[in-house]
């Protein structure tokens, strides 16, 4: 239950923000976006601070954030062909759910200095963060295999990331928030989510295991052992 709590917390927070949007007469998207960002990150920040990370662990986390952001920037001209989801998933597998969330959220935030910041940024941060968090939870009990890693990466980026990230588009484009209007927005985003998910799955299939082995070797070499506190 302790590991599931942050997930339920974020889902509830997003639901409250959406209801606020529906009931509000004067919608302030920026305020709601900041609210979602703060309430979704707080549990992970507090938990990470309590774990008292070492300088080596912070260096490893920072390096993975930089790699994830760079992997998105390299394919700047090709829409949705971004291996950032694969890097975040590998991070969650190796370092655990909590750090997977932090790496996912910060990589989305930093890479958006290239792709553009906006009201969608907090949603993308929460979405990529939850992908890393879910990967950490799933592979804490499931053995990492090439096919399994690829399939789960596909599902997480297509379903979980797509649902959360596209909420920003729903809030902007759906004036009446009816089910048909929301489904239309999500339907229009399906091809983009599919390309992103396929990119993630293919990247994990060919590079996921070697990347995981490399990170694990670094953890052993430098004595970095992440204790999960979520």
Defining traits:
single chain, 230 residues, mainly alpha
Strand content: under 5%
- The low-pLDDT segments are none
Order of helices and strands: HHHHHHHHH
Classify the oligomer. single chain
Mean pLDDT: 84
What integer value in Å does the Rg equal? 17 Å
What sort of overall outline do the alpha carbons produce when their principal axes are compared? globular
Separation of the first and last Cα atoms: 9 Å
Structural class: mainly alpha
Total helices: the number is 9
**Largest sheet entry:** none
Helix fraction by DSSP (H/I, runs of at least 4): over 70%
How many strand units? Answer: 0
What does this structure look like?
The chain is an all-alpha fold. The chain has 9 helices and no strands. Helix 4 packs across helix 6, helix 6 (about 120-140) runs antiparallel to helix 7 (about 145-165) and helix 8 (about 165-175) packs antiparallel against helix 9. The protein is globular, with a radius of gyration of 17 Å. The model has no long low-confidence stretch (mean pLDDT about 85).
